[in-house]
Design a protein that fits this description.
Blueprint (H helix, E strand, L loop, with lengths): L5 H9 L6 E5 L4 H11 L4 E6 L5 H4 L4 E4 L4 H10 L4 E5 L14 H10 L7 H14 L3 E2 L14 E2 L7 H19 L5 E5 L2 E5 L5 H6 L12 E4 L13 E2 L1 H9 L4 E5 L4 E2 L2 H11 L2 E5 L1 H4 L7
Length: 298
């Protein structure tokens, strides 16, 4: 029998092995949920917690290291040292000020490769980051590729359902968020009785909701609308709602949350739905025809 070259044998032997998953973890509980799902599927996992964003309690059960977001060289070296092949970027991260960056040497080179996208909206920047990771030999995948049931389905998920006034506010919100997303600014807004109370920008959904209570009008409460940006990169920064979103919506006096089904991450699903039911809020997954309303009204 002819001798098989060692390199070819290794590739054949490794072909059936699960690919090691590296998780770049921002805030919230989702990085831990992704890790648990990957481990349950037999995949080795290593988490890089982004300093100042990742929750230490979420990282604790998993092999991990905490690294500054601008230490690009250390991040790449750590991913390679732990054999990571696939990468998931999950959890909210506040974009650092370019004036306050302290990149390591490799991080500075990575920023140069990202180029003008560093000054673009979040989706433009994330697309450039994903491209650079690909050039470095990693495959970036979405959290939804690991957490198979994380995406919210269409329809009313709660005991409460939107009435005609709420549906009108949702249609208004869809048109506004499409315009907002087309400029790569944000994914959400709050509408009450046809009036736009708040737009989501750099502060994120929770902070937007926190300032809505003071803006509310007398009468029926408003709605939060969350949608995917037009043409958005789907491997990072999908619209996300969860328990904290429900709590924030209730505290702001809203009547419900409408979100694009099939692309919105519903974190901690059972707890979020239970909290919405307790508060009398509706959670509504918008199907493709509903979510497309307002696309041509910008």
């Amino acid at each position: 029998m002819p001798e098989m070259p060692a390199g070819k044998f290794r590739r054949t032997a490794d072909a059936g092995k699960p690919r090691t998953l590296g998780i770049l973890a921002g805030g919230g509980a989702l990085p831990g949920e992704v890790a648990a799902a990957a481990a349950a599927a037999g995949r080795p996992v290593f988490i890089i917690g982004l300093e100042g964003f990742a929750d230490p309690a979420v990282l604790a059960p998993w092999p991990h290291e905490v690294i500054r977001i601008t230490a690009g060289g250390r991040i790449l070296a750590t991913l390679r040292a732990h054999g990571c092949q696939d990468i998931v970027m999950i959890g909210p991260v506040r974009r650092p000020s370019l004036l306050g960056l302290r990149p390591d040497a490799e991080g500075a080179r990575l920023l140069a490769r990202i180029g003008r996208a560093a000054f673009a909206g979040d989706d433009g920047l994330l697309g450039a980051v994903i491209r650079v990771f690909g050039e470095e030999g990693f495959r970036v995948i979405g959290a939804q590729d690991v957490l198979r049931d994380v995406l919210a389905c269409a329809g009313v998920l709660t005991q409460a359902a939107p009435d005609e006034l709420a549906l009108a506010d949702i249609r208004r919100g869809i048109a506004v968020v499409r315009a907002l997303g087309g400029a790569d600014v944000g994914q959400g807004c709050v509408v009450q009785q046809g009036v736009v109370l708040a737009l989501e920008a750099a502060e994120g959904t929770d902070a937007m909701l926190a300032r809505c209570a003071a803006l509310a009008r007398p009468g029926p409460g408003g709605v939060l609308v969350k949608l995917l940006k037009p043409g958005q990169e789907r491997r990072a920064d999908l619209p996300t709602i969860g328990l904290e979103t429900v709590r924030g919506a209730a505290a702001a006096g809203l009547r419900g949350v409408a979100f694009e089904a099939g692309v919105t991450i519903l974190a901690d699903r059972e707890a979020a739905i239970a909290a919405a039911n307790a508060a009398g809020l509706f959670l509504l997954g918008l199907g493709p025809h509903s979510a497309d309303e307002g696309r041509d009204q910008r």
